Amino acid sequence: MAEHNILINRAPVLTLWATTVAERLGFDKEEALSLGKAVAALTAQSKGQRLGIYKPVPQELKKARTKTRRGILD
To answer: Which residues, other chains included, contact 69 with Cβ-Cβ below 8 Å and sequence gap of 6+?
Structure first.
């Protein structure tokens, strides 16, 4: 008998799981979905950094972006 493997992308599964957990904690559907997407994105970013795919943002760049978002820079 031939063996069949199924490959699944983790992100949609993690999004669904986190959304379901958030709904059970009392969040409405839209909020729960937003939280689920955030969990999946943060997990993907973290794994990408561990694998060396993404590099952490230097502190100087973080500070500059924060100032720009607040409208402090010209």
So the answer is: none
